[in-house]
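Chapter review: from sequence to fold.
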Amino acid sequence: MQTIPQAGFTVGNINRDLNAAATFRAGWNLPNDFGPGRLDDVLAATGNPYAKNLSLYGYVRAGGKYVEHDVFVSGNNDHDSLGVAEEHWVGELEYGIAMAYKRFMLHWSNRHITEEFEQQERSHIVGVWMFSWSQPF
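The token string follows.
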């Protein structure tokens, strides 16, 4: 069993936020990595995971972020533009299963994201099947 904490921030023209999360995973032959990546996770695309033996595990990731600005929700901040009032506090819950062997990984996950703007009727639920193969250069 492992618990993997994570904290960070984003500063840019598109969005600015502070975020924190923790991943709990349990299973067989846990690889020496930071857990399964997400489609919007730079580490998933640039990391170099390697599972020496066959690995199988389940995980739960919970976290949240304080969003100061998101151009896709509130619009451009240089002048009046189309946009909606954003929710500044956004929570996430993700759960899934993963299997890894050497440089291959297959994983399934469901990610629940609370409302990101005030007129949003319900939270997002995103399901993902991801197959990856990494090759170091």
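Two observations follow directly from the output. Residues 42-46 form the longest helix (5 residues). The chain has one domain: 2-133.
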